[in-house]
Amino acid sequence: MRAVFPGSFDPTTQGHLDVARRAAAVVGELVVCVLTNPAKPGRLALPERLALLSDLIGDLPNVTVDAAPGRLLVDYCREEGMDVIVRGVRTPADLEHELPMALANRRLTGVETLFVPTSPERAYVSSTLVAATAARRSVRG
After folding, report:
1. Which residues are catalytic?
2. Is 30 left (phi over 0), alpha (psi -120 to 50) or beta?
3. How would you write 73-123 as a 3-class SS string?
4. Tens digits of per-residue pLDDT, 76-135?
5. Rounded to whole angstroms, how far apart are CA atoms 18 and 117?
6. pTM confidence score
């Protein structure tokens, strides 16, 4: 089974890594795919995100890193032959946001979505929070 774990990964968090490792344990191949989100201006350049992800998950033999800037996830799944989309969820609000997209993706491509709950100790961490904390520290520093 081929699965894709999409996201902006800007920056990558321990929660992302937790979801990737757990998903890798249940699928044959996992592609961590950096997608660009026009609503989120990038903090790190795409090559930096790819290099960071490769370093952080390089120990997982069935995981690769890819990028699909400017492409829709459904197009990526169709073109790359993905069977499953992996989505990490931290809160009920995340699930409320992700469920309609999962249903649309299934209808458009037949690809199922596997929701992986974030480990409780990481549930409060988001890329936005990490970036805001880092920005605040650099202003103080």
Report:
1. 16, 40, 90, 127
2. beta
3. HHHHHHHHCCCEEEEEECCHHHHHHHHHHHHHHHHHHCCEEEEEECCHHHC
4. 999 999 999 999 998 899 999 999 999 999 998 899 999 999 887 755 555 555 555 544
5. 10
6. 0.85
